[in-house]
## 1
Amino acid sequence: DAGVTQSPTHLIKTRGQQVTLRCSPKSGHDTVSWYQQALGQGPQFIFQYYEEEERQRGNFPDRFSGHQFPNYSSELNVNALLLGDSALYLCASSFIGYGYTFGSGTRLTVV
Amino acid sequence: GQQVMQIPQYQHVQEGEDFTTYCNSSTTLSNIQWYKQRPGGHPVFLIQLVKSGEVKKQKRLTFQFGEAKKNSSLHITATQTTDVGTYFCAGIGNQGGKLIFGQGTELSVKP
């Protein structure tokens, strides 16, 4: 049984560009959450999707947007990239009442 | 907004010594979860606590949830080199929704 799959694993982008990260949740999970983790820090909550709707959002600017598809997979889009957006982006899937399963993450470097 | 704080930030122990990390929330939590992240890895779910005063054990690991549901602790007895990593607590507030992570406690174990 596959866990959470994220793609790509690594990405290098230039300031001002746009990026799309993808996530396939664990089988049976219907909720997807996205986190940003800077080096040496805890994961910071970006937003959560359930039934194709953004259910919760953290303190991130509108440059960060997302989508959830009918098969529960999800995308994270970041526009107008800044150097400070360089981080590990983690996708986590869950089913209500249970712990989160994290993917291995996408390492984004903005130059 | 909801904040989760963890102490200490770092803990260096000799193999065989005990280890404890503490977690405090600014608001009452509906549940608290603990995760372990190995160096270069992603967070892995360890356990979830939902009841006031709850204590759960997993082999050498003991987890507690405070009576007021605002604090928690993780205690490892007789640490081993395989315990190395960063331990995160993460809580969901009473209004539900987003899982907020603490900053983590990085554990190193000297053989």
## 2
Amino acid sequence: EAGVVQSPRYKIIEKKQPVAFWCNPISGHNTLYWYLQNLGQGPELLIRYENEEAVDDSQLPKDRFSAERLKGVDSTLKIQPAELGDSAVYLCASSQNMRGGDTQYFGPGTRLTVL
Amino acid sequence: AQTVTQSQPEMSVQEAETVTLSCTYDTSESDYYLFWYKQPPSRQMILVIRQEAYKQQNATENRFSVNFQKAAKSFSLKISDSQLGDAAMYFCASAQGGSEKLVFGKGTKLTVNP
């Protein structure tokens, strides 16, 4: 079974430029998550999708961040414009969502560097 | 609100020895789940072990086991017969029942010395 796929693995951009990250969850997983992981910290949830619906986006900075999950499978996270403080690792995870406390499976992440 | 605290930023252990990583948590819910995730330098987070709060029996997975002290809100991870491949960041996390939101601690960096 293929794991969670993310691309690109690394991205370097100038500040004020746009950037997008892509995630393909494990087949059959209805719930998809985007996390932000700063250096030396644990991941923090940005947004959670149940199928196509964003059910928890309270931590997503909506002035510059946006996300979508069309057709309830792949998802894209976008930042426009990027700021220096956005340099971090962006992790995608998925779970079956059969019940609460489901195990989340993580992708390898995208390391963003904003210059 | 949930909080997870890992008080050991770094730990080290000799190969084949046993090490225990500490974690405390706080939640107002009675239905919750606890997890230990491992993140090697390649960055892919991998589930190590999962504990359901309503189960009194401590979870075990091969060389990994937990000491779940519900009253003390403590959830430590014991790694027996440590191997070089165990070197990684270890994150403790909690999720309230009915919510898929994982709250992570800041992590413990484990070094395994040959």
